[in-house]
Task: structure prediction
Amino acid sequence: MIVVTGATGALNGVTVDHLLERVPASEIAVVARDVAKAQRFADRGIEVRRGDYADPASLPTAFAGAEQLLLVSSSDPRADAVALHRNAIEAAVIAGVGRILYTSHQGAAAGTPFGPGRDHAATEELLAGSGLPWTSLRNGFYAHSLGWLSGPWRETGRITVPAEGPVSWTAREDAGEAAAVVLTSPTPFEGPTTLTATAAPTFAEVAETASAIAGRTIELEVLAPEAWVAAQVAAGTQEFMARFLLGMYQAAEQGFFAGTDPLLADLLGREPQTVRDVLERPAVH
Result:
């Protein structure tokens, strides 16, 4: 049995869709805080179970019988993500799960300026100490976010950032599909497993790609961090979120998202989506 948390979200929802191409629905269960939101899976013959990381008592039953448990990371920037993940890992131990696969991030490190990267590193330490076999899917920075992080460049003619650095922008759809391949592989993937696109362009190179798409020059503007935060707040972004995002740019500047790995392309059997593919789509806010 493969048990998947977070299937009502975009990442693990893609994984379940691809799992259904590989294994019968009877071999999959999904866990959701609100089971009504998982109706599309129930309609396809998948067992839907209620479970909430913030309600530890709900989790052992939700994870029961899992030979593999795909554990999605918390996406709430204000939550104590590590505490929530600890609840899930402890419940997996109680339930006797065969292996945990955790959706981590390429930039997982205790010293990263990007908060989720620190949370992922701490969670990987919990996994290592759990006594269970585990795999950490270190996905590249999700490329759909570039659609709004790059701003309205078609209208303004510029991309404005508070720091410059390379990022291996990786399509969430590709990462989700690869997770299904990993889950159904006859050979287990052990520990940290990096899944990224095959290139890590700088924001200057992103601007060059945008220029080629637009047929005119799109400039890169690098503001001082505090000036960028002030501009974000003036445009309506909460200061908390602006500073949260600032950490991502600073992590890019320090090289936390610079690496690339051929494994994702190997698992997919094709080239992953590129920055150009992302920028050619309308921005999603």
